[in-house]
Amino acid sequence: MLSSVPFPSGRALFIPRRHSFVEPIFKFCHALIRINPRGYDPNIRLSTFVANPDIMSFRKEKDSMGSIDVPADKYWAAQTQRSSQNFRIGGQHIPHEVIEAFAILKKSAARTNQDLGVLSVEKADLIAAVCDEILAGKLDDQFPLVVWQTGSGTQSNMNVNEVVANRGHVIAGGQLTDEKKVLHPNDDVNKSQSSNDTFPTAMNIAAYRALVEVTVPGVEALRDTLRKKSEEFKHVVKIGRTHLMDATPLTVGQELSGYAAQLDHGLRAVKNTYVHLRELALGGTAVGTGLNTPKGYSEKVAEYIANFSGLDFVTAPNKFEAMAAHDAIVEAHGALKLLAVSLMKIGNDIRLLASGPRSGIGELIIPANEPGSSIMPGKVNPTQSEALTMACAQVMGNDVAINIGGSNGHFELNVFKPMMIFNFLMSARLIGDACQSFNDNCAVGIEPNYARITQHLNNSLMLVTALNTKIGYDNAAKIAKKAHAEDKTLKEAGVELGLLTAEQFDEWVRPEDMVHGL
User: Fold this and answer.
1) How do residues 367-393 score in pLDDT, each as one tens digit?
2) Staple partner for 351: which of 103, 193, 357, 385, CB 3.0–4.6 Å?
């Protein structure tokens, strides 16, 4: 006997049913078509189904467009299911930081609505309880939607609304199959809200938290290490380089102090964006007018969000700006790009200064963390610099996408929201994590290669610069050119040209006196 398995193309696969493994596959394929006639549902795994065919069961959920089959064990409902079927793009899911931000704002909205007398205590308690479960990571598998969906993020807002409503109903003793439930996703969980003001609020909450909790601590750790190393090596004189060519001396500490100062400026730039980023759109509802919100809602809900998050959020003084534009995200990511630019230089400088060990510059010694080659024994590479600079390149690319998204707000709504926050959070994590990794696995172990530093210093022609004020620029240039052409020392060339004595050279050319402001 043959079983026919239909496919979206209209073709059918005929499989002998006598084989024991066929029946679960047959049911599985029919289940996929039932959920989505056009293709594969990423939330269903064949391996799970083959192991337990009974797990593939469904319930009916309804929305304004009608009914749809939803996996029986999931808390989401019709709108989430439609989005998961209609947007099979990329595979990048809405970041968990955004879902956590939604939990904070939904809990805050419920308490605000309760305080203002438009939501019962019982319903507010249920909503808050589910939000706490989301924040505890207990419902992570209930948020399957991808970034590449509606640009307002409406479906992710509804995903949260549906999960909170259905999970709250179960907590209250109900069943997912009940036609009437204790909580309604729109009327209760989304009360006094619109996707147009909740998603930008979630964006700002997630972005601010990421900067404070991940980015800034990572950058500060690296900055502090570079400061410490700068002080430790402030008397180690080395040759400087400009245009990739030898220049006048400085100290290892002075060179490292420049890196630390770059990160100081970057941190200041990030923290300066907090003022704009802490302004929340919640309370603006559909277009910024606050339609269907009770009096005092905007201010009170911002207070709750500040309390639950531990950050100084406030209601945006102009909801039209907060919803139609995402300049705060653009501005804050601009600061992340600044850090990426600084870190790119720092990472590249350190790997070049550590290059070698025998045929490169080799003035710094960095930790040897792992073998560097599958064919060259003993080779060790500057892998932390490589990881750091790759992360920086990604952040710079993310900034382009965010700039394009931010510049494309149309009338009362920007519809590039999911993409913008996805890229922002990626950058915030990359900068913070890469700095922490570079700090722990490279920067803390940096040591000067004293022998190589001394060799390069004494061999440099640019020490002749100390003679400018003694014999003039033109005469000093003659010494440098003769020394280079005849492979002689500066002292030998100067004495042979009769421009100074050996004693004068030793008195005037002292590298340790050429580095000012130790």
Assistant:
1) 999 999 999 999 999 999 999 999 999
2) 385
